[in-house]
From TrEMBL:
Keywords: Glycosyltransferase, Transferase
Transmembrane stretches, start-end: none
Stated family: Belongs to the glycosyltransferase 2 family.
SUPFAM superfamilies: Nucleotide-diphospho-sugar transferases
Domain annotation Glycosyltransferase 2-like: ranges: 6-120
Pfam families: Glycos_transf_2
Annotated GO MF terms: glycosyltransferase activity
Protein name: Glycosyltransferase 2-like domain-containing protein
Length: 123
């Protein structure tokens, strides 16, 4: 089964995480098709604790769920570069923490990606 790497950078994003993670859990693709990589930029609002709880309760739905806290805010770009190194899928989806996906979002994106010019980086 081919997976998609979903990379998220958080900073004081606790209020959004349940909706985002649940929108990934309820995608109409097989469970285990998503590798979730989250880099936290030194949040102070309980983001890490919230992510740890989500990992415990929803982590089995993902091929992999990695949470990496950073001691300092390393910035959006650098954190996404760090997240990209955690995955191995030919497909990477970068999401902001306040994103919620429609249930058919990933199946649609993956279908287009698999049939499009492989040199295209975004659809």
């Amino acid at each position: 089964m081919q997976t998609v790497d979903v990379n998220i950078v958080t900073y004081n994003s606790k209020q959004h995480l349940l909706h985002l993670v649940d929108s990934l859990v309820y995608q109409n693709i097989p469970h285990g098709s998503i590798s979730l990589h989250i880099i936290d930029n030194a949040s102070q609002d309980g983001t890490i604790e919230c992510l740890t709880e989500l990992l415990a309760t929803r982590g089995k739905k993902f091929a992999k769920m990695v949470i990496e806290p950073s001691e300092t805010n390393i910035g959006f770009g650098r954190a996404h570069n760090r997240a990209a190194k955690l995955g191995s899928s030919p497909f990477i989806l970068i999401l902001n923490p306040d994103t919620e996906l429609a249930p058919n979002c990933l199946s649609t994106l993956l279908a287009i990606a698999r049939t499009s010019n492989k040199k295209v980086a975004a659809w």
